[in-house]
Specification:
Elements lengths: L4 E7 L4 H11 L5 E6 L14 E5 L23 E5 L3 E2 L4 H11 L4 E4 L2 E4 L10 E4 L9 E3 L1 E2 L3 E5 L16 H12 L2 E4 L8 E2 L8 H7 L2 H11 L2
Parallel strand pairs: 1-2, 1-4, 2-3, 6-12
Antiparallel strand pairs: 4-11, 5-13, 6-11, 7-8, 7-10, 9-12
Helix pairs in contact: 3-5
Amino acid sequence: MKPTIHAGMATMPSRKRTARLAIRSILPQVTRLYLYLDGFDSVPSFAQHPKIVVLRSQDYPGLNANGKLLGMIFTGQEGYYVTVDDDYWYPRRFVSRLWKQRLAIRQPLVIGVHGCILKSPFKSYLKDRTIFTSWKPLPETKSVDVVATCGTLHDLADLCFDVRNWNVTNQVDLHFAQEMKAAGVTGAVVRRGWFWLVPLRWSQSDSIFAALKRNDEAQTALARKIFIC
């Protein structure tokens, strides 16, 4: 029997072109998609589908990118939850690959495609990381400290929370890591070949990573709180 797969994505008006493509690639692979529309005046045509549950920022304000995790409050902690971004094209067997790898590892786990290990000594979240990038090959599944939420899967019985309790937005990956640690859940990135998962656009000025490159003080402090202190 196929598992129930809940997916979560957040998007905003400046990402309409890539969001349309990202949704097209992931929708056939999931049972339903919880789509957080941040700042849309109306529901765009690409969000109108029987599988899509629209969550508008007018009803759930101030979540920004955190909104991709809001769907967990509606799942009843049954099945699996997948996080995806609005600027990636997901390969045809993306969800099944992550799900099979999750089943192969007999412990509470978030499995993803992009993540990092913090270096020691640790002084900067931007500089002191070993990063496993989604589009580069990885010969074997690798344990990581932080799993990037551009593409993850986990069992809701292992990890389920209300993202509205977070008091900071757009530091999604580290706060997700904090929830994982509190629940006793580990992280890993799946083995893959070249360009298995690639972004639809690169170096976007409105991206979270662009903001991180300008100032990583908050992320550095949070990483130290989670993993060092």
